[in-house]
Amino acid sequence: MAFYDAVDRADGGAACDLLAPVTVESLEDDADESCSEAVLDGEVGETLTARTGDASGSATVAGRQAQVVLADDVLFLTVSGTTWRIVAAGCDPRPDRPYDCVLEGA
Amino acid sequence: MTARRSGLRRNSLSLFFGALFVAALVGQAISGVALFNEEQRSAGLDPIGIGEYVTTSAFAVDVTENWQSEFLQFLLFVGATVFFLQRGSPESKPLDDPGRESDEKQKVAEFSTADSPAWARVRGWRLSLYSRSLSLVMGTIFVLSWLTQSVTGAVAYSEQQMHDLQDPVTWSQYLLLPDFWSRTLQNWQSEFLAVAAMVVLSIYLRERGSPESKPVGTPHAATGVEG
After folding, report:
1. Which Pfam families did the record assign (chain B) (predicted)?
2. What is the pLDDT of residue B1?
3. What are phi and psi of B214, to 5 degrees?
4. Cβ–Cβ gap A62/B159 under 8 Å
């Protein structure tokens, strides 16, 4: 998956190009640094880097939202224009509650 | 009066409701896409056009959940008034003749007339089918609309689930969820109330000139009389 390829290469700019605007904004606000740095730093960077292994998985699409389930991660995407953007990544399931995601739009 | 104007007048009831339907559907699409784009903009996403919006599951489920309940309402109304009666209501037939009624009264087979529909003139499967054709068509539209509501509702629900960072659901899972039954029953209850109110209120109230009302001077107890 392109996002995890970019994280694996430590190419924060390329990773951020795949994020939804609200996710970029939330990440920059929380980390108080640019997206390209914040996506590789701290807990976010550690969690995402640890999940860059197996990129095979499945996707479920419903309208303008999608969920991608990888061997080591779950991501949520949305459509903006004609492009799919990542809304949340580094997500872990919680019973009867939304996924707990290390990277997500507010 | 020209033939064209005369034709318009003779079909004005269906034209009036057809125009209202189109206007309301267009209004629903315009207000729906505006609401949808409010949410898109607040998330920093590109807005969509009305052409794209009317193909979304969100629009389809909102449309079909109302369609199914309306067609169910008229299906039940058509079917129930065959067997159930209401003293004093113009929506009920006379109290002495519940059920499918005699062939003579229904003008079928040997009791048909020269201008009766072809399928009403001869006994057999065509007469049986035609005798129930109104409820069959209304029922078919109801079932198809409800089915479409369930399919598009499952997609719309999954879309919202993923928007909220939760797992999507399959169609069969959706059929057991409160969202499906809440959408369904909230429409059914309003349709049943409207029919019950029409049946009962028309016993005592009048609308001069309307075939849905008894003539203004008709007694409250008169049943099966239309204006």
Report:
1. DUF6766 (PF20554)
2. 58
3. -75, 155
4. yes
